[in-house]
Design a protein that fits this description.
Largest sheet: 2 strands, antiparallel
CATH class of one domain: Alpha Beta
Strand content: 15-25%
Radius of gyration: 29 Å
Structural class: alpha+beta
Strand order of the largest sheet: 1-4
CATH architecture of one domain: 2-Layer Sandwich
Number of strands: 4
CATH topology of one domain: Alpha-Beta Plaits
Number of helices: 2
Order of helices and strands: HEEEEH
Distance between the termini: 110 Å
CATH superfamily of one domain: RRM (RNA recognition motif) domain
């Protein structure tokens, strides 16, 4: 008995993740409902980052603030994931905004900003004849 086999190549399926993730420097973390296995698979399959260990924890939101009616306001809870790379692997954050070679042209905005900043620094310098006493403290 022959099976009914479709002709040609099989249908290619693309599975998109249900979550989005950003690699961020230490700071206020993002909210994620992913498990540690989801995080590991996501980083390995999508970003090709070799993951060694993933540790997660729940950060509880603050409950100390009060609104204008003196009612407690609770900040939302969020999950934090700490990812340790595989042995011998390193990761560097990409330089998204590299410094461009600044060529200051005559009459440009950059030149005017630089001149303004130099004038401000000169104006804020203390007068050596006053002995370190500020200008507003005078008779």
């Amino acid at each position: 008995m022959a099976r009914n086999v479709p002709l040609g190549n099989p249908q290619l399926r693309i599975f998109r993740p249900n979550w989005f993730m950003r690699l961020v420097r230490p700071g206020p973390p993002e909210d994620t409902r992913m498990t540690k296995y989801d995080v590991k698979n996501y980083l390995e399959k999508i970003y090709n980052v070799p993951v060694g260990v993933v540790r997660t924890r729940i950060q509880y939101g603050s409950n100390k603030k009060r609104n204008h009616l003196n009612q407690r306001v609770k900040q939302p809870d969020y999950k934090v994931a700490y990812v340790q790379l595989a042995q011998g692997q390193t990761f560097t954050f990409p330089d998204l905004f590299p410094e461009k070679d600044k060529k200051v042209t005559e009459g440009s905005v950059e030149e005017m900003q630089e001149k303004f900043m130099e004038d401000e620094k000169q104006r804020q310098r203390l007068d050596p004849r006053r002995g370190g006493v500020t200008e507003w403290f005078g008779l």
